[in-house]
Predict the structure of 2-methylisocitrate lyase-like PEP mutase family enzyme.
Amino acid sequence: MTSFAALHVPGRPLLLPNVWEFGFAAALADAGHPAVGTTSLGVSAAAGLADGAPESRAATVALAKSLAPLDILVSIDLADGFSADPAEVADLVAELADAGVVGVNLEDGRGDALAPIVVQAALLAKVRERVPGMFLNARTDTHWLGTGPVADAVTRARAYAEAGADCVFVPGLHEPADVTELVEAVDVPVNLLYLPGKATFSELASLGVARVSFGSMPYRVALSAALATVDSVREGAELPVRPPSYGDVTALLP
């Protein structure tokens, strides 16, 4: 199987679907997708918790362990790491590595603010020291929390790469000039979030992006499709989507 790092090619980006439960991941593996990520919003919502809440740590770990046996590479969204103690976060990443997880995502967003650069860089460095083989995707929320200058994202991305990150993730960044500036300013692959109505997948590829994530979109689309199905049955209309059969789904299960 191709390594996770090898899938991150500038100009030929990895399209990474984000899942929140086993069935969707199994369907993606069956369809031949090489890798899958998780979505903190989907995992938290499925457990009845706030997005990235510390209490969602257990659900995140349980999902990771259920996905690891699948014939697909697995990267786990750890939000802020579920702890302010870098050693505890590093121990969590080590536990996931032992379960077969190949990548993790750690963000510098702390509610409506950003962690100080030195604090987040120290966290990343601790994780890198503890689990040297893990693909470490460092997310900065400079553009997710606002529309600050791309220079802010560049500064953080460089610091996180120097701390050991294998890839930098700037959700919300989409203007071609800004994307190009970031790609040219850092020495590691760049990960962006697909935003409907903004740059297309092929456009992001042409700008040198190496990974395009879906984030919580699949979870939100699933909610919309389920609600639309209920409405269609009530109104006597055709189903909005053709679902897989019961047998199709059970065939994906252990």
